[in-house]
Write the C-alpha cells for this entry.
Amino acid sequence: MKRALLTCALLLCFTTDAHAYNLLVQGIASTGPCGAGSIHFYGPQNISVNTSNSPTATDAAGLQNAVQILAGRVNAVGGQSFRYNLPAGNATGGYGWPHFDGVNEVGIANLAAVAPGLLGFAPSMTDPVDPCKVIEGDVFLGDGYTWAYDTPTAHGQKYYSANEFFWAGPTQYWYARVTLLHELLHTLGLGHTITDYAMMNYGIMPWSNQVSNAQLDLLPDDRQALRAVYPDTSTECDTAVLNTFVDPTTELNGAAFQKLLCAPATGPGPSGSRFAPHCAFAPQTRVCPGDPLYVSYTIANYGTFNETLNEALWFSKNEILDVTTGSDIASPTMFSIATLKGQSYNRWKIYNVPAGVDYDTIYYPIVFVSGAHLTLDESDRNNWTPLVAPVRIKRPEECN
Amino acid sequence: MKRLITTLTLAMTTFGLAPNADALSFARHPSLQEIAKEAPLSFRGLVKQIRFVQAETASEVPYTEITFVVQQAYAGTETGAQVTLYQMGGPLADKGFVIIPGLATFDLGQSVVVLSNDSLHPFFATAFGDQGALYVRSLEGRSIITTSDGRTVVEQDGIARYGDDRCASRTAACKLEPIFANRKTRSELSPMTVETFDAWMFQNAAAAARGVPAQTVSASRARFEAALLRLGGAK
C-alpha cells in the first residue's frame, strides 16, 4: 500500500540527511578483503521457511505467514531497492541448524544448545571471492520459547500497550514477528543502534494502529539504513504515532533498549523519566476538565520527505478515534512539529483536558497527527493511537 | 565422528577480525557489571594468534581459535599466561565465510578485555557475544576502554558501564546534559582508563573465580569440537 506522493514533495517535504543507524561491518572486516564496508545482498533474494521444527501445524502456518508478511514489509519500504521474491518458499529437510547451502532459510532451532536465553540468531555466509556479498542469510528462532506469530490483538492484548511477550495461563508467549524482523534486518546488513529508535534495538517494539499485516513495521532508522545499503529513487510518505521509545540511559554493548512510554499523568513523575516504572500514575490517572495532562508519545516519519505535522489529543470513550460525529472531544491544546525524513521524535507534552467530557467516566486519550498528505496513504490509520492507558474523569464534586 | 579437515594458521599476519555491531537476541540483557561478575575467566591481554578451523560435522560449522597473552589477569588465569578460546564462524572450505553476527571479533595484536563464560555460552569466546569483549584504545595519550562500536566505557557512581555515545572520543569527564527537560542532572561519567578499569575488575571479578572452572568446553580444541559435533550432529 506504500505510495509515492508527488504532492508531498510539492507541499510540505524537503530533503535533509541525518541518520543514526549502524551497518553490519562483519565477515573478515577491517583488515580483510571487505575492508570496513558493510555486507549486503546483491539483487533480489528468495527466502524459504523451514517449518520442520515447528511444534504444531498451526505454528508452522504461523511462521510461514509471519515471514511472508515481514518480507513484504521490507519490500514496501520506499527509497530502497532490495526485494524478496514472494511468496516465500519452503525449505526442505528436517534439521534445526544452518546448512550453509545457499538457501536464505528461516526456521526453528535448538538455540538453547548454543546459548541459554538466545531468542534469535542470524548466521550468514559471505562470498569466498567477494566477502562483502552475502550469499546466504539464515534466521532461527529458539525452540525453547513459545512463539506467537500474529499480533497482540489476536491474543486479546492492546496493540498500543503490548510488551515483548504476554502470558496466557502458565505459558509465556513471545511475539515472533519482532524477533524475526530484527534478525531479517541483520541478514540484510543492518547492525544494532545505540542512538536512535529502531527495530535494531532490544526491548519493546511498537505495534501501530494498522491492519494486522502492517501493525509491526520497520521504523524510520531501519528504513534509512536500507535506503543507504540498497538505494533507489522511489519515495514514501508515511507518519505514525507510537507508544514506545528508545531509552538512552540503558547500558548494552551496541544496542539500546526500547521501552513502553508512561501512561498519561498529572505530573512528570518523581524521576522525570518517560518510561515505566517511573511514571507518575498509580493505578489510573484521574483528572478534571481543564487539568493539565502530561502525555508522552512518539512520532515516526517513515518517509523520504520532511513534513510538518499538527498534533492533537482527543478524548474518546472507546479506543477508536472519531473526529466527525462529535462523540470524541479534542483538547484545546495543539502543537506542531517539523519532522525530518527517517527520524523519530519522542514528545512529552502537556495538554489540557477539554471541557465537555462526562464526569466519573473513563476516557482514552488518543494522539492524532495530521498533515496535508496523511489521509492519502497508510498514515490515515497509523497517524493516531490511544496512549498506553486510559484516564478517568473525576466526579463533579471532586472538580469543584 | 569428527575430523579436523582444514586448519588455516594465520598467526601474526594481517588477516584478522574486527569489531562489529552485534546481532544476537537474548531474552536477558545483563549489565557490564553482571557479565564481569559472572565470568569465570576474565583478563586484559593481547591477541597473539587467530586460526580458522573447520570441524567436519553435519552442519559444517567452521570455528575460530583465538589465542591471547594475558597482560592482566582478573579471574581464572594468571598474568603472563596464554589463553586460547574458540567460537563459531570462519571460512568454510571454498564455500564462503560463515559469520555469526553478534560474536566478538578480534584483530591480531589487538589489546582487549575478555570476559568469558563458556559454561554459559560454550560457542562464544566471550560472554553474551560481543558484550563480553572490550577494546583498549589510545586516545589523547591515554589508554581507554571502549565497546565494540568504539564508545568509551565509563564509570558512574563506581560502576563501569557501556559508554554513552555522547561521551565517545573524549577522555575528559563527560558531564551529560539532562536527557529530558525535567530530568535531574545525571552524575558525571568518567571514561575508564586501563588503570581504573583494572581496579574495578579486581573488585568485581573475584566472585566469579570462586569454585568455578575457568574453562570447560573451551579448555581444549578437542573438547570444543566434541561440543560442536553434538550441536550439529555427526556426518
Observations:
- The longest helix of chain A spans residues 57-75.
- Residues 126 and 133 of chain A are 5 Å apart (CA to CA).
- Helices of chain A lie at 6-11, 57-75, 111-114, 176-187, 220-229, 379-382, 396-399.
- The longest strand of chain A covers residues 329-339.
